[in-house]
Every structure is written in structure tokens, then in C-alpha cells.
């Protein structure tokens, strides 16, 4: 009877009945924590983007990348699955940070973790537009809820005198206002001067729009472009940067790049802090 022979599963395969051929082993790739904003290239597709998040799924860990156009793609975190500076790496889940003293809010203040939202004060902070309000909420939202300060937007500074008159500010109901492009000799500065008083504080930043108050490095650009006079500024910014999206979509991209006060210019930071102090002063 002819006997059967089976290859030993623990030995490498043989070719032509000769000496077992060793497996070719790939060099282990270094492990790199998939920290937020780390820029990598997916080895299989060539998709290049910044890390947005890492998630655990039934199939294993995945990483979401965002390219420079704001497009998101999800990839499995496989060994040697990504490139950094052209060299293969294995992305791993970032370690949870250990305790490092007091928990800070996005504005840099000590977070009050067990505080309930305070009943709204009579005082208010007004900002010039919806984008301004969303940016203030993103960085100072925790502080404002703890202090009971409500932020509303004007839809333009031209209506400010009528709003101040209707609000009837007083010592127990102070009004703070943040204005875009508040520079000497401007229309905004003249309107601000007409309403400023002991219970009304109007401050501003020098930027044409609050978009510019976000640091270019946080957005992933070298600088904010200069837009020719007469062209809609936000539309011109998108055109100059090659962003094929609406201005609303562009703002969402900009807003998503803001995580803490460190992503904002000091000309805005100081003014918002000044307004919060003003309306919450005893």
C-alpha cells in the first residue's frame, strides 16, 4: 500500500523536495499612536489626511482621516497599513492620558465638572453674527453656562443702537458686545462709540471676519488670503484656498479645527474674556 505523507504544519514548505525554504519575514513597522491631527497616508489607496478619530468596531479598530478638502474616509488599523514620510508604520490606539491636575475647559479655565447650568443672568453678550456665536460657544461654552451668560447675535452691527435701547442696560443687566473689524475711523467704531456707557461695553477685533481669528496653522493653511476689494470676502477665501465648497461648509471645516483657546488669535481671546468679566462683575 502506498503511504501518504503530509507536510509538517510547523515546518516551512519545501520546493522540489529539497531543503525547507524559510519564510520571508517583513521588517516590523514602528508603532505610532493615532493622535488627533496626525497626518498619514493609507498605504493601499494613497489617501492622505489627518487623524480625526479612532473607533472600535466589530471588525477591529478603525481610523477616520480627513484630507485637505475636508473629505473623510475610514480605514482599518492594520499592521504596516499607513505611511509617514513615505515609511510604513502601524497605527495604534492612543493611550488614555493619566491625571494631570485640574481639568481645564476649552478656554483654559478650570472646568467645573459637577456644576449645573446657572439660571441665565439679566446681562447679555451680543456678537455680530452666527459664526461668531458658534465660535464663542465652542471655546467659552462651559464658562458661559457656569456663569449663566447668554450669547446672542446681531446679524450686523447696524442694528446695535436699537438693540441697546430695547435692552435698557443697567447695573444689574450689563450688556457686552463683540464687533468684527473694530478699527479707528470705521463705521463699526462710530456705532460702538454711540452706544458705549457705564453699563454697555463694546469691544472688537481687527479682523474682517471672525474666520481670521482662527490661527491659520490650526486650519492647516499657511495664511489667510487677501481678497480683492469688492469681492465677497468668504467667497474669495474659498476661491483662493481652492476649497470647492460653500461658505457654510467652509465655516464648518474651520470651526472643526478649533479645539481650545490655543487655536485662536490673542486679539479675539482677550476681548471675549473682557466681555465675560464685564457682564458677570458684581
From TrEMBL:
Protein name per the record: DUF3097 domain-containing protein
Residue ranges of domain DUF3097 in the record: 31-94, 124-280
Residue span of region Disordered: 1-30
Organism: Actinacidiphila alni
Amino acid at each position: 500500500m502506498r503511504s501518504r505523507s503530509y507536510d509538517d504544519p510547523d515546518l516551512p514548505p519545501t520546493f522540489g523536495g529539497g531543503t525547507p525554504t524559510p519564510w520571508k519575514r517583513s521588517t516590523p513597522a514602528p508603532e505610532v499612536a493615532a493622535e488627533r491631527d496626525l497626518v498619514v497616508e493609507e498605504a493601499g489607496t494613497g489617501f492622505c489626511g489627518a487623524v480625526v478619530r479612532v473607533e472600535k468596531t466589530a471588525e477591529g479598530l478603525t481610523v477616520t482621516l480627513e484630507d485637505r478638502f475636508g473629505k473623510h474616509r475610514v480605514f482599518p488599523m492594520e499592521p504596516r497599513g499607513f505611511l509617514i514620510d513615505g515609511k510604513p508604520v502601524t497605527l495604534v490606539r492612543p493611550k488614555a492620558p493619566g491625571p494631570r491636575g485640574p481639568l481645564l475647559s476649552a478656554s483654559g479655565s478650570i472646568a467645573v465638572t459637577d456644576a449645573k447650568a446657572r439660571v441665565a443672568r439679566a446681562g447679555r453678550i451680543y456678537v455680530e453674527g452666527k459664526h461668531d456665536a458658534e465660535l464663542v460657544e465652542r471655546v467659552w461654552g462651559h464658562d458661559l453656562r457656569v456663569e449663566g451668560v447668554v450669547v446672542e447675535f446681531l446679524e450686523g452691527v447696524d442694528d446695535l443702537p436699537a438693540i441697546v435701547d430695547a435692552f435698557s442696560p443697567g447695573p444689574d443687566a450689563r450688556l457686552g458686545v463683540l464687533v468684527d473689524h473694530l478699527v479707528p475711523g470705521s463705521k463699526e467704531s462710530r456705532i460702538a462709540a454711540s452706544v458705549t456707557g457705564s453699563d454697555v461695553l463694546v469691544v472688537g477685533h481687527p479682523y474682517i471676519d471672525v474666520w481670521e481669528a482662527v490661527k491659520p496653522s490650526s486650519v492647516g493653511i499657511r495664511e489667510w488670503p487677501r481678497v480683492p476689494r469688492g469681492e465677497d470676502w468668504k467667497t474669495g477665501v474659498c476661491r483662493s484656498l481652492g476649497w470647492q465648497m460653500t461658505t457654510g461648509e467652509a465655516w464648518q471645516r474651520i470651526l472643526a479645527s478649533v479645539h481650545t483657546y490655543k487655536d485662536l488669535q490673542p486679539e479675539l481671546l482677550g476681548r471675549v474674556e473682557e466681555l465675560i468679566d464685564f457682564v458677570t462683575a458684581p
